[in-house]
Design a protein that fits this description.
The chain is of the alpha/beta class. It contains 8 helices and 10 strands. It has a single domain, classed as Ureohydrolase domain (Arginase, Chain A, 3-Layer(aba) Sandwich).
Length: 292
Amino acid sequence: MKMNKVDLSFQSCKSEYKDADVVIFSVPMDATTSFRPGTRFAGNAIRVDSFGVEWYSPYRDRDLNEFKTADIGDLDLPIGAVDDALKVIYKTTQKILKDNKVPMMVGGEHLVSYPVIKAVFEKYPDLHIIHLDAHTDLRESFFGRKLSHATFMRHVHEFVGDGKIYQFGIRSGEKPEFDWAKSGHVTMRKFDFEGLDKVCEALKDKPVYITIDLDVLDPAVFPGTGTPEPGGMQYKDLLWAFDQFEKLNMLVAADFVELAPMLDPSGASTAVAAKTLREMVLILQKNLEKRR
């Protein structure tokens, strides 16, 4: 599988793949979206918008162009073939990990996190997951499909096991999902991020994967998503969460998902996603520095 830089890259993330520490890739898939589609267009929309985002983050006091980050672009997925597409995502992640690089994935619908997490878990069997989302994503099946954007975390649990998944911001789902979570399978914090600081402190020496569904943000902040849920977080809350992530010593991979750029003609949602990618890459790079 050939990995290289692409013509349209996120910001200054233009290192050659062979030289990079962190590798950005985007997954143009919204095949199981149950309400409003459009997340397949997120990756390149963010790349275009990134030309208006400063390389320097005053929140991290770091500059993207100080680090070796490659952006390998949208993965080439077979349209309509969900299982085959998941295999491509899984194999791409395996390759990045085998080459001792850190994956930073941009969705796409939330199902695309499943093969990435699976590949990361195979390298780090004690993997813990921090999941920021409006939705539980804990159904066993959805519209007859075992794997969908509404079920992926339930099936991640099948291989990571009890006590390894921490959910924050949850405010939507079916009652059986909440009941299943309460039975001790996952740790769920409804409605906000309270306790995230304590979780990051407890997990600081464990391998951690962070997955962020941007619909955890309130629709007033982030309307460009397929299933908006009122009562969400403000962007300053997400920035606070990023501060907590900096406490981790083994942040081994991350993703964010569910931007549907065409659902927000103002472009505000895409700007939010572009800033989020800048912050997450800088956090991953800082984490690598701590491990060296």
